[in-house]
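call fold(seq) -> tokens
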Amino acid sequence: MQKEIRIRKANKVLRVSENEVAKYTATGYDVIDEKGNVVQASVPHDPNILRKAFIEKSETIDKLNAEITQLKAEIETLKAQADKSIKQTTKARNKRNDE
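ret:
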């Protein structure tokens, strides 16, 4: 016996077999759990919804790329500071050893 899955579109809730889930999510049904929480969102087909999602994702990508650039610059600064500190420490040790 196949497990039944609960799906919802607007206020209409159905129980379908696992084999039928893909067909229903493609037509706008969300997969829900026993409490009514969305487990798997439907596949959007509305161009406006898709456009909005694309813009949001693009903005997130741009922000993350800017953050990556900033963090790379910070890493390079820290590396330079570490190298300088190591050179100073080495120089001080060598000076003490020579005395």
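The helical segments are 21-26, 47-98.
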